[in-house]
Design goal:
The complex is a heterodimer of chains A (about 400) and B (about 240).
Chain A lengths: L2 E10 L5 H10 L13 H12 L13 H17 L8 E6 L9 H8 L5 H8 L5 H10 L5 E5 L5 H14 L5 E8 L3 H9 L23 E8 L8 E10 L12 H13 L9 E3 L6 H14 L6 E3 L2 H4 L6 H15 L1 E2 L21 E2 L4 E8 L3 E8 L2
Parallel strand pairs in A: 2-3, 2-4, 7-8, 7-11
Antiparallel strand pairs in A: 1-5, 1-6, 4-5, 6-12, 9-10, 11-12
Chain B lengths: L4 E7 L3 H4 L10 H13 L5 H5 L2 E6 L5 H14 L4 H5 L3 H12 L5 E4 L5 H15 L4 E8 L3 H6 L13 E8 L1 H7 L5 E9 L17 H11 L5 E5 L5 E6 L1
Helix pairs in contact in B: 2-6
The chains are: A alpha/beta (about 400), B alpha+beta (about 240).
């Protein structure tokens, strides 16, 4: 299989553009502060200015809603980069998110139930509760009426969304497809992950002996996919694999069986062997259990001789449902620049993991990158990104 | 591309009848409803013959809203975040619970799109089997009634989104899957298409639940074997068309 990326956009805690994200990833500039990655206001200001300059988005009104605005501004970047001047009914649109617009309604709902908020405000706020409202509203604002889907499979959501887009394109259900993920921070996730003792107050250290947890972050990434290569093509999505652990609500299967199955399926769908993979861009959250399960899966599949393995979470944090597409964008940039990124924050590799960590950013010939994601509920997804 | 067949279907039974069972000690109402619909779908099947090659797609419009409210209220009142409430609060918590219960190791997806949630679950399962990612795929779409929302939204059009509850399930299979379990299909599922309405004004529809597309498909199959398609009209004027033969 093969589908081609022609446009990409990203707004993360590391900045308002693909270039800002790539430079941060190359030079090890973390957008995290006190263990969390909020998107700076300046990124929204820059995004609004760019959106106003795009004729396709000239009539779009930006709502006072962080998730919707984030999605629209990032989408605009991707569509502009792809050179799309219109959206057609035969296009597809897939959005991934875990918590959607929760900051628009969570406090209002609890305040109302506790008797401290007027009903009118509660009614207004709660309209944003269904995740589908985010997709519906974004599509309405850009006048898009084609095939749509919202995927909410936790951390694997946008990786799955890319796999679905590939299937839509291959089966001829759409001619082109927009795929994006958007995530904003909220009490539910910050306090919830904290209650599971998964959060680190310092920048995460994936695969480190002293790794102490993950960093939640905000972020959005969008890609424009087409079924045929063109002179605008940036990279190729050449394979994907999906699986589940069926093991635990929040912890990965310790030996990484599900993760291994997803990676093997991705290689098979790309018609590649393990030896063809130049770099694994890992999920690598910096949590004890995730990193050891993922490492076990990699060792198992790659027969103890894995390619370079690294994670970029130290730079941009973990944007949950948006993480797969944001990190895919880094894979695409790495293919374009032919550089394997090191794991920033990794000081003392955990010897029990037996992985091959790039000691620095490595300029080298890269043809294929395997991108992994693992999510709550035992959801696993893997992609193969290939150079043009 | 594979042809995709409906092998069996199921609807949720009354959750009150099963909530006291020990196996549901940590389960939410949504999990119980969804699992109940899958149990009915899988009646008479050797689950071991299916599970190794089976995907699962769950659709839910509101997700685990009752648990989310519990989590947020407890946090607001006591300052304590309870991990069990958090792990059950995400939309795909229900999916994770079902994957554990049925030991699913194939593709596992959760989708959510207002009135089209059920249809999207069906269409995504259809996509997976058609593409050859799995030879079986369980589809379920569920929403659980949250009494506080119904009361809070009394006399508003939004209330209609929260008044009903239920779950429907379908087991899809490829021809290879059918041969493996030795079953005759109920029908071949051809396509699931959704058409958005030009406006988004809700009409009141008490008892409706947003993800009922799967349940209505299951009922259509059961009611009339002559039918080969069904149009489902939504409270906002949009509609879907499900086609089979």
């Amino acid at each position: 299989m093969a589908v081609w990326v022609t446009g990409q956009g990203a707004i993360t805690c590391s900045g308002s553009s693909i270039d800002a994200l790539w430079q941060a990833a190359r030079h090890g500039t973390s957008g995290l502060k006190d263990g969390l990655g909020y998107i700076p206001d300046q990124a929204f200001i820059e995004g609004r200015a760019q959106l106003a300059d795009n004729p396709l988005f000239a009539k779009v009104t930006l709502p006072p809603n962080r998730a919707k605005e984030l999605a629209l501004l990032t989408l605009e970047q991707a569509v502009r980069r792809a050179g799309w001047t219109e959206l057609r009914p035969t296009d597809g649109f897939i959005l991934a998110t875990t918590t959607g617009q929760i900051p628009q309604w969570d406090k209002a709902l609890t305040s109302y139930l506790l008797g401290t908020l007027a009903k009118l405000e509660f009614v207004e706020a709660v309209q944003h509760q269904p995740l589908g409202d985010l997709l519906d509203s974004v599509c309405s604002r850009i006048g898009f009426s084609g095939r749509q889907l919202l995927v909410t499979s936790a951390c694997a959501a946008s990786t799955q969304a890319l796999a679905i887009a590939a299937m839509w394109l291959e089966q001829g259900l759409v001619d082109r497809c927009i795929v994006g993920g958007a995530e904003v921070l909220c009490d539910l996730t910050i306090q919830g992950f904290s209650s599971l003792q998964l959060l680190s107050r310092k920048a995460s250290q994936p695969f480190d002996l002293h790794r102490s947890g993950i960093n939640l972050s905000e972020g959005a990434g969008f890609l424009c996919l087409e079924s045929e290569p063109s002179d605008r093509s940036l990279a190729c999505l050449s394979g994907f694999g999906l699986s589940s652990d069926g093991y635990h609500m929040t912890a990965p299967q310790p030996e990484g069986h599900g993760c291994r199955k997803a990676m093997a399926a991705a290689l098979a769908s790309a018609a590649l062997a393990c030896a063809d993979i130049d770099w694994i861009h890992a999920h690598g959250t910096g949590s004890t259990h995730n990193d050891s399960a993922e490492a076990a899966a990699i060792r198992s599949l790659f027969s103890n001789d894995p390619p370079w393995v690294s994670s970029s979470k130290w730079v941009h944090g973990h944007a949950l449902g948006a993480s797969g597409v944001i990190e895919s964008i880094l894979c695409i940039e790495a293919l374009r620049h032919q550089i394997v990124l090191k794991t920033h924050g990794l000081e003392q590799p955990d010897p029990a993991l037996h992985l091959r960590h790039p000691p620095t950013n490595v300029p080298t010939k890269i043809q294929h990158i395997l991108k992994n994601t693992l999510g709550f509920g035992g959801t696993n997804a893997a992609l193969v990104w290939s150079a043009i | 591309m594979n042809s995709v067949y409906v092998v069996s279907t199921g609807l949720a039974s009354d959750p009150e009848a099963v909530t006291k069972e020990p196996r549901y000690r940590k389960a939410t109402r949504g999990m119980i409803l969804a699992n109940s619909s899958i149990e009915q779908t899988m009646l008479g099947f050797d689950r071991e013959a299916v599970r190794e090659d089976c995907g699962l797609v769950l659709g839910s419009c509101h997700g685990e809203l009752e648990v989310t409210i519990d989590f947020l209220r407890t946090l607001s009142q006591t300052g304590v975040a309870r991990p069990i409430l958090f792990q059950n609060s995400l939309h795909n918590s229900t999916t994770g619970f079902l994957a554990m219960t049925w030991r699913i190791t194939g593709p596992l997806l959760t989708v959510s799109r207002l009135h089209f949630t059920g249809e999207d679950a069906l269409a995504t399962g259809h996509l997976l089997v058609r593409h050859g990612l799995c030879n079986f795929c369980l589809i379920t779409a569920v929403d659980a009634r949250v009494a506080e929302m119904v009361e809070g939204l009394n006399e508003t059009k939004i209330r209609s989104r929260y008044t009903g509850e239920g779950a429907g399930a379908v087991l899809l299979a490829s021809s290879t899957g059918l041969e493996r379990v030795g079953r005759t299909p109920r029908c071949e599922l051809i396509a699931v298409n959704c058409v958005n309405a030009p406006t988004h004004a809700l009409t009141d529809s008490p008892g409706h639940y947003e993800s009922n597309g799967v349940e209505l498909f299951v009922r259509a199959l059961a009611d009339d074997e002559v039918l080969n398609n069904i149009s489902l009209y939504k409270p906002d004027g949009s509609h879907s068309l499900l086609t089979w033969r």
